[in-house]
Amino acid sequence: MTGFGKADAHFEGKKIHVEVRTLNSKTLDVNVRLSPLYREKEMEIRSHIAASVVRGKVDLTLWTEKDAEQSAPTINPSVVASYVTQIEEISAAHHLPMPDNVWDLIVRLPETTVTSQPEVLTDEEWTVVVAAVDEALDKLRQFRQQEGEALAVKFEEKLTAIDTLLQSIAPYEQSRVEKIRARLESRLAELKGVDYDKNRLEQELIYYIEKLDISEEKQRLTNHLRYFRETMAQDPGQGKKLGFIAQEMGREINTTGSKSNQAEMQNIVVHMKDELEQIKEQVLNVM
Q: Given this model, what pLDDT does residue 268 score?
């Protein structure tokens, strides 16, 4: 299911940002992009994601920003003092005058400033990071829950539409029998001088109609509709089961279409297929 969650945290002048996004996928596919300082904790972050997300393509990004004071270069006092001492000694040894502005010379020399200090991940900072990751995942769950509630309403609309279409087939079933009888009798009447056994005609007609009977398909489809609703009401993580039920619904609808043998019934089946196809598309969004 698609979703998005974001969290921000602060630690000793550092801003920590976490974003997590999900897309449809039949399995859990996790992609993690981390700031270099946190790469050693990638497996732990993946475990947090797996505990929160059942399936889907998950992209988690974790990066940091430093405050201006921390990111600004700092002067290295020991290096500056060493340069001053060396300049004074060279001037005295070679009887050279000291430069008018020693500082302008020193700042051009290497290593007088330090742009950054090596970072070490402490337990305190990692605790803050984990809290931010969990907050982002929690917001993701809330987002997906809202999407799921809207999806349940959509499913119910489609299930009701299929059920209504199924009930609308009934009037055509009886008229279909009468049309089949009339067509057979008309064809037999065209055979001039040929007599036939009307009892045998009734038997053949019954056999033919039984082959086209869709009572079992209608009953099974009704059961699948009910089971789909019951599964939706169960605990989360039923997406695959809903997909299987939708496949079974498709089988019954297809069999009904192959047995219809009447334009009006086939049109109804086409509409049922359209409603079911929309269910199948959205089932991929269910965990």
A: 93
